[in-house]
Amino acid sequence: MSERSDAGPADGDSPVEPKRKPERRWPMAAAVLAAAGLQVITPREGRLPAWWVIPIVEVAMLVILIARDPGRIDKRSVALRRQTIFLIGFMTAATIGGVIRLSWQILDGTSRVSAGALLGRGAGVWITNVIVFSLWYWELDRGGPAERAAAAPIEPSFVFPEDGIPERVAEGWMPQYPDYLYLAFSTGTAFSATDTAPVRMWAKMTLLLESSLSLVIAVLVVARAINVLPGS
Length: 232
Fold this sequence. Notes:
- The protein is an all-alpha fold.
- Helices cover 60% and strands 2% of the residues.
- It contains 8 helices and 2 strands; from the N terminus they run αααααβααβα.
- It has helices at residues 26-41, 53-68, 78-107, 115-140, 145-149, 161-164, 177-190, 201-228; strands at 158-159, 197-198.
- The chain has a two-stranded antiparallel ribbon with strand order 1-2.
- Helix 2 (53-68) runs antiparallel to helix 3 (78-107), helix 3 runs antiparallel to helix 4 and helix 3 (78-107) runs parallel beside helix 8.
- It is globular and about 55 Å long.
- The relative contact order is 0.14.
């Protein structure tokens, strides 16, 4: 076995980047399946027309993506990245459509959709909102998972706590999907970033959009819940 040398790189040699293991596909896939599942199990009253098309398309696109790059995400492919962005974009459009539909039905006094259905769909839309934005952060930060695994020289859009304390994390640490899911969840609940700092304009504006959608959903759902409480 060879011993690790503490000497620096020889003159003319570039520093060796720590080896990074590509992250697994299943956390991201589980998030997409959870979003698709919410489309099926939440109350169906007052949904978007042809709502059943949404989960079918999401699962179909996910299956194609996994078939082209199964296991760990290690292929630096423009086509794969475009396909991933298209999937997330489709989920985003469906989520925004759900927010608009939900908002209109809560604010419209003549809507015949039951309070229970509106509250159940509100919870489903909020969770989907968190998942969708976590996927955007995961795909766009530092060039995406494949570029992060390859240690590509792309500046970060989010600075995580681990970036400031490298001695506390494993050598070659990089953010993975659960880190971005936590970022999206904390943004959706606190309506702002907590321990992770956005350092790029697109990151700040995307956090702003997620916070705004979460606030709209929370305010409308809470107002509706108060309105249907006994004695109100």
